[in-house]
Amino acid sequence: MHPVTNTLTTGFQLHQSGQLAQAENAYRQVLARDPANAETLHLLGLLMVQTGRPHDALRLILQAIESDSGVAVYHSSAAMVYMLLGNAAQAAACYRAALQRNPNDAGDWQNLGEALEQDGKLAEAETAFRRAATLQPGSAAAHARLGAVLERLDQLESAAAELRQAVKLDPNLAPVHRRLGSVLEKLGQPNAARISFGRALS
User: Fold this and answer.
1) Which of helix, strand or coil describes residue 71?
2) DSSP letter at 17?
3) pLDDT of 3-13, one tens digit each?
4) CA dist., res. 153 & res. 174, Å (int)
5) How many whole angstroms separate alpha carbon 143 and alpha carbon 69?
6) How far apart are CA 77 and CA 46, in angstroms?
7) Which of 28, 23, 19, 21 is nearest to 10 (CA)?
């Protein structure tokens, strides 16, 4: 095995086992020999996130993208860091870049929706959440997020339908029962709302 590959494999194993300082050292050894190694730049960037250094993480992950822009997960990771740094607009741009490369990733569609919602782009967020729910119809979280943004868009009947689907898929989601109760109150259905609020409490 090539020395760089061997050191990267060692670093990844250390990373997985939670030995972060040792993993960082191994990754830096790889980069000393191969500064443009995209996989190592990305992994070291993720390690920086874990150790509370998001600005360093972003710099490394952007370098990984510069070295190999075709890997969807690099763009997703950059988006995650932008969200940590409070830059929802740039995060959304990175999630879109990831989805250009892997358009059927339900998780990235949901994450894009969250970034867009945080950026105040509710109609675009609805589209992203709806795509996530279509790709992953058994995900209670996807239907719950779609229902929440539909409520904010004042599409209450559609919001109630999505929230009902979410609690059907996972009856233990107390916050979703509460949101459904609130939507049903707005729809003038107090008895149904009381049932949802009761389920939230139970």
Assistant:
1) coil
2) T
3) 678 899 999 99
4) 22
5) 31
6) 8
7) 23
The residue type of 85 is L
Average pLDDT taken over every residue of the chain: 96
Structure tokens at 197: 């609020």
CA 97 to chain centre: 14
What does the CA dihedral 148, 151, 152, 153 come to, rounded to 10 degrees?
120
Size (the chain), residues:
202
**Is the CB of residue 129 less than 8 Å from the CB of residue 149?**
yes
DSSP per-residue string spanning 161-198: HHHHHHHHH-TT-HHHHHHHHHHHHHTT-HHHHHHHHH
3-state SS assignment for residue 2: coil
CB neighbours of residue 179 within 10 Å = 22
pLDDT attached to residue 184: 97
- The DSSP code for 34 is -
pLDDT digits (tens, 9 = 90+) for 103-116: 999 999 999 999 99
Cβ neighbours of residue 145 closer than 8 Å, sequence gap 6 or more: 110, 113, 114, 129, 132
Buried b / exposed e over 48-77, threshold 16 CB at 10 Å, is bbeeeebebbbebbbbbbebeeebbbbbbb
**Residue 175 burial by Cβ neighbours in a 10 Å radius (0-12, 13-18, 19+):** exposed
By CB neighbour count within 10 A (0-12 exposed, 13-18 middle, 19+ buried), where does 202 fall? exposed
